[in-house]
Write a structure and sequence with these properties.
about 110 residues, alpha+beta, Cytidine Deaminase, domain 2, about 35% helix, globular, catalytic activity
Length: about 110
């Protein structure tokens, strides 16, 4: 895609890429809440708990008092966002969800 991204949207993609790289995870995610605070995370894969990177980032935002999201980003090799990722963004007010490749190039905008 050749759409120019707002610098704040590019920032959450960069944060998601960093979370993915730092943990050697298959995906990274970041969200920006209604006050402009950002949260970045990688997925969790434990025997008793499995969460996508976006679910972790949203949980971090909610546990810090966020009521809604302005934007969310997932960096992954996947061609489409997971249904549970779309659902968690919808739970938080239908923010734009950006899906980006590991190199940061934008694959799509959702919701």
């Amino acid at each position: 895609m050749t759409h120019a991204l707002d610098p704040e949207d590019q920032k959450i993609i960069t944060l998601a890429r960093s979370a993915r790289a730092r943990n050697g995870s298959p995906e990274g995610a970041a969200v920006r809440d209604e006050t402009g605070r950002t949260y970045a995370a990688a997925g969790v894969a434990l025997p008793s708990l499995e969460l996508t990177a976006l679910q972790v980032a949203v949980a971090m935002a909610v546990s810090s008092g966020a009521a809604s999201l302005e934007a969310a980003a997932v960096v992954s090799d996947a061609d489409d966002p997971a249904e549970k990722d779309l659902a968690v963004v919808e739970d938080m007010g239908n923010a734009t969800l950006f899906l980006a490749a590991p190199d940061g190039s934008l694959k799509g905008r959702y919701i």
